[in-house]
Amino acid sequence: MTGRLDKRFCSNQCRANAHNANRRQNSGEQLILNINSILRRNRTILRQASPLGKTTTYRQVLEIAGLDFRYFTHTYRTKGGNTYHFCYDYGYLLLEDEKVLIVNWQPYMEKS
User: Is the entire prediction scored with pTM above 0.85?
Assistant: First the structure.
């Protein structure tokens, strides 16, 4: 290796590879990666199920597609007391008879 005396890596690529290897071995980082993967998959399923922005479907359809109802990024509670669970910009409201209302995030949902 050439360069400074305290140089730890031979190149930027070696530094990045070492950093990535450490992240793969860290169980906390693995947990974050796994949860982000589930959230992304949930968002994709909601987006595909609701191409027009507002759709009602059955819970079983979403479960078969792989939606994991335990994971969401945030909630939105309406004045009427309904709670929407969001995966980034797509959300759902659990309705009666095992139905689910899928919606897009709207500007009026911003916290005031």
Answer: no
